[in-house]
Design a protein that fits this description.
The structure holds 2 protein chains of 2 kinds.
Chain A lengths: L8 E4 L5 E6 L11 E5 L6 E4 L13 E6 L2 E6 L8 E9 L4 E4 L3 E5 L1
Parallel strand pairs in A: 1-9
Antiparallel strand pairs in A: 2-6, 3-4, 3-7, 5-6, 7-8, 7-9
Chain B lengths: L2 E5 L3 E2 L5 E8 L8 E8 L6 E6 L5 E3 L7 E6 L4 E6 L8 E13 L4 E9 L3 E5 L2
Parallel strand pairs in B: 2-11
Antiparallel strand pairs in B: 1-3, 3-8, 4-5, 4-9, 5-6, 7-8, 9-10, 9-11
The chains are: A mainly beta, B mainly beta.
Chain lengths: ~110, ~130
């Protein structure tokens, strides 16, 4: 059971937009910054979003992040088949004094 | 370009100790504000944070693994390491090293926490 809650799967057609939610509590998302990762099988996870809504160099602006209260959202526009991957949210939990991840969301581009 | 490389035995027997070393190249492990983290992914499951260590030796461990985990850093070799004791089949996973940008913004009163460079991962199987 993950500390952060994500939907197990989402899907959308190529060119469309999709959002992935990440729900937590005041000890984690509510009072700390959120990051998002893309993970394709057999590869290293890639940082997509940090500090809620910032993109590292090289990450397309099709990827966006936001946070409100104890929830965060990853948005992906202009979906491509290459976006099919597992997506994870992550943050720090003050109560645990530990890093925590969501359970991951599998994105299917139909 | 910063690179991390995991190394260690791919097979460990139950009840023994899993040992893993992460070598950092293209940058210094002595970097300010950067911890060095270990994350794993069991087959068919999600990512699990194991722990992170600063070059000074400051450490955070996952509460669920804390009783069995020891991390250390060797600044002379630009390496950090993991030891996980009393392993079982549940410890079978792909183990990743990562640079962990971690700290506290006093202005916002919030922790920032992102893993910005990752190794390719190494599969460790626990089996007799």
């Amino acid at each position: 059971q993950s500390v952060l809650t994500q939907p197990p799967s989402v899907s959308a057609a190529p060119g469309q937009k999709v959002t992935i939610s990440c729900s937590g509590s005041s000890s984690n998302i509510g009072n700390n910054y959120v990051s998002w990762y893309q993970h394709l099988p057999g590869t290293a996870p890639r940082l997509l979003i940090y500090e809620n809504d910032k993109r590292p160099s090289g990450i397309p602006d099709r990827f966006s992040g936001s946070k409100s209260g104890t929830s965060a959202t990853l948005g992906i526009t202009g979906l491509q088949t290459g976006d099919e991957a597992d997506y994870y949210c992550g943050t720090w939990d003050r109560s645990l004094s530990a890093g925590v991840f969501g359970g991951g969301t599998q994105l299917t581009v139909l | 370009q910063l690179q991390l490389q995991e190394s260690g035995p791919g097979l460990v027997k139950p009840s023994e100790t899993l040992s893993l070393t992460c070598t950092v190249s293209g940058g210094s492990i002595n970097s300010t504000n950067y911890y060095w983290g270990l994350i794993r992914q069991p087959p068919g499951k999600g990512l699990e944070w194991i722990g992170s260590i600063y070059y000074t030796g400051s450490i955070y461990y996952s509460p669920s693994l804390e009783s069995r985990v020891t991390m250390s850093v060797d600044t002379s070799k630009n390496q950090f390491s993991l030891k996980l004791s009393s392993v079982t089949a549940a410890d079978t996973a792909v183990y990743y090293c990562a640079r962990h940008h971690f700290g506290y913004f006093y202005g916002s009163g919030s922790y920032y926490n992102q893993l910005d460079y990752w190794g390719q991962g190494t599969l460790v199987t626990v089996s007799s």
